[in-house]
Amino acid sequence: MKSLPYFCRGEVVRGFGRGSKELGIPTANFSEEVVDSFPSDISTGIYYGWACVGNGDVHKMVASIGWNPYYKNVKKSVETHIIHTFAGDFYGEILSIIIVGYIRPEKNFSSLDALIAAIQDDIEEAKKKLDLPEHQKLKEDNFFHTTTVTNIANGH
């Protein structure tokens, strides 16, 4: 995956409404246009990195890129779970993320509980990996301190 780290920015749009309600794990979703702009060498799967809403603080995150086999999505999505508790939703805000590394491929699960357990494991894995010095430096990247929406792809 030559495209990592991958820098991405876009408006938070309404997703499927499952993250918070069914999973207890809220996610921020990018529009189809942003999803379609991802490089082809970023395969589907679960990733970790850094995220910032608007001009707020930078937090650890995990992101699911793909079709979410458990839910049998027909459209590819990028769903970011920011490892932080927010007071409310932030639809319409600009979400900036840096995808730093890969955790695992997408897979189907036999139950909702198994899916939730896997996501919790992904979150723990992301927390550990993002504590490494080589990943900590990206938390301070200037990308998070510029807010132009036009630079949706790599290269800030």
Automatic annotation (TrEMBL):
Gene3D superfamilies: Riboflavin kinase-like
Cofactor dependency: Zn(2+)
Catalysed reaction, written as an equation: riboflavin + ATP = FMN + ADP + H(+)
Keywords, ordered alphabetically: ATP-binding, Flavoprotein, FMN, Kinase, Metal-binding, Nucleotide-binding, Transferase, Zinc
E.C. number(s) listed in UniProt: 2.7.1.26
Pathway membership, UniProt: Cofactor biosynthesis; FMN biosynthesis; FMN from riboflavin (ATP route): step 1/1
Claim: Kinase is one of the keywords in the record: yes
Gene Ontology BP, a term: FMN biosynthetic process
GO CC annotation, single: mitochondrion
Residue stretches making up the Riboflavin kinase domain: 1-131
Gene Ontology terms, MF aspect: ATP binding; metal ion binding; riboflavin kinase activity
Pfam families named in the record: Flavokinase
The organism's place on the tree of life at top rank: Eukaryota
InterPro entries: Riboflavin_kinase, Riboflavin_kinase_bac/euk, Riboflavin_kinase_dom_sf
Protein role: Catalyzes the phosphorylation of riboflavin (vitamin B2) to form flavin-mononucleotide (FMN), hence rate-limiting enzyme in the synthesis of FAD. Essential for TNF-induced reactive oxygen species (ROS) production. Through its interaction with both TNFRSF1A and CYBA, physically and functionally couples TNFRSF1A to NADPH oxidase. TNF-activation of RFK may enhance the incorporation of FAD in NADPH oxidase, a critical step for the assembly and activation of NADPH oxidase.
Name of the protein: Riboflavin kinase
Organism of this sequence: Podarcis lilfordi
Highest classification ranks of the organism: Eukaryota, Metazoa, Chordata, Craniata, Vertebrata
